[in-house]
Amino acid sequence: MITFEAVKNNPDIATYIKRADESLIALGFTEHSFAHVNKTADTARYILETLGYSARDVELAQIAGYLHDIGNLVNRVDHAQSGAVMAFRILYNMGADPEDIATITTAIGNHDEETAVAVNPIAAALILGDKTDVRRSRVRNADPTSFDIHDRVNYSVKKSLVKINEEKTLIKLKLTIDTRYCSIMDYFEIFLNRMILCRKAAERLGLHFRLIINEQQLL
Fold first, then answer.
1. Which H or E element spans position 160?
2. Domain total of the chain
């Protein structure tokens, strides 16, 4: 049975993540390397654990979160689909169970906002883990005067927290942003589609999604 630790310790997978991120560096994208995939996996784990899903479902969500961006090795365009195909091959070669392979590849193939659908709880947790990873440390550009809007939005985030309430009815993305770098309108211009996708993913898990920026509820 495939484990999250086995995936994390696989040197081939590490190479694919590293080289995929190198392509995104060349394209001027924010960080999509080990910090991002670990954060995605950790948030997906938190969500499903909190909602009482099985330990196996939690682990499958972690694996999907860790592998979800390897398709950028092929091309940024359609990276969810190419990543799913890569993950299928990798997991098959690692001896993973077909049921687990099916669940993980389905989640990966449905995580990007252009084509994403929260078709199962693993996909929903992956979407929420991926799309809520907004933080200053994802910005690679060291010169604030040359920031594009994506840089400004991420750099403005001083604190980010994903939290499910005690009643397990709401999932909140709480951001503290420095409005010197990014206005709330800038955030919406870049991330509105992502936040709508988060709302749909939350609904798949029986939750309402709330976006709170500087203590103001915006969604």
1. strand 157-164
2. 1
DSSP 199-215: HHHHHHTT-EEEEEETT
Angle between helices 184-204 and 121-131 (to 10 degrees): 170
Beta bridge partners of 161: 174
Strand partners, 206: none
Do the Cβ atoms of 204 and 121 come closer than 8 Å? yes
**What is the spatial distance between Cα 32 and Cα 15, in angstroms, rounded to a whole number?**
13
Look up the pTM and report it. 0.95
pLDDT tens track for 28-40: 889 999 999 999 9
Among the ranges given (94-103, 162-171, 177-186, 209-218), the one the predictor scored with the smallest mean pLDDT:
177-186
Q: Which domain holds residue 10?
A: 4-217
Residue of 81, 57, 71 whose CA lies nearest to 4:
57
* Residue written as token pair 């359609």: 78
CATH number for the domain harbouring residue 110: 1.10.3210
